[in-house]
Amino acid sequence: MEWDIAKRELSKVKVSSNGKNELVLVQAKSNKLKCIGRGTDAAVFRFISAPQYAYKVFSNDKLEKLEQESKVYLKLGYSKYFPVYYGKGLNYLVISYEAGITLYDCLLQGIHIPKQVIIEVDNAIDYVLSRGLNPRDIHLKNILFHEGQVKLVDVSEYLEPGNDKRWEYLKEGYTEHYHLFDGKALPFWLLENVRKWYNQTRPERLNLQDFVKDLINPFQERLRF
């Protein structure tokens, strides 16, 4: 297994969870690995000798998420909407490295998000449903956009029940409000407020129109659209 060559270097990495909905902490004693992303359960690395792979290393108290995500990838099979799954180690998954920018970073940098991205995510969701899985936790940081192609890069919740409505609200927000700031770089503090406020609200009780009004009104002068 070509991807297994990183095993020794990955043993020098420690990933620790950091509270509910906070990014993991990373300690790495290897100059051959580059951390390219962090989530609430794991961090993702590339190995300089095998840059075509991405290694998702989980916190030790989140290893059940590793097993769950592995099962999801096996059930998904091959799809252009998801990374290729290669295998797993004791505390990591191996998937294909996917180039691109997250929709979150598009908003931070003022990069235009075309409507085709929304259509492609909907197509990906239809594929997930066709495989008997539940497409959850689809948000700005989990959607990569590159040369017209969309990839969903976190599938860890697809075995869980219920609808968290993340994608429905994002789609509605895109349709109703994106034209107000298309091409404008949004401040980090604003996006983080959106994330935190959403996480503190039960999805079924969230009214998007009121949510946007309450968020923007106190900061209108700072936004300067």
Compose a concise summary of this entry.
This protein is an alpha+beta fold and 225 residues long.
Any descriptors?
2 domains; 35% helix; Transferase(Phosphotransferase), domain 1; single chain; Phosphorylase Kinase, domain 1; alpha+beta; 225 residues
Describe the structure in your own words.
This protein is α+β, with helices and mostly antiparallel strands and 225 residues long. It folds into two domains: 10-96, Phosphorylase Kinase, domain 1, CATH 3.30.200; 101-215, Transferase(Phosphotransferase), domain 1 (Orthogonal Bundle). Helices cover 35% and strands 21% of the residues. It contains eight helices and ten strands. The chain has a five-stranded antiparallel β-sheet, with helices on one face. Strands 8-9-10 form a three-stranded antiparallel β-sheet. A two-stranded antiparallel ribbon has the order 1-2. Strand 9 and strand 10 (149-152) form a beta hairpin. It is globular, with a radius of gyration of 18 Å. The termini are far apart. The mean pLDDT is 89.
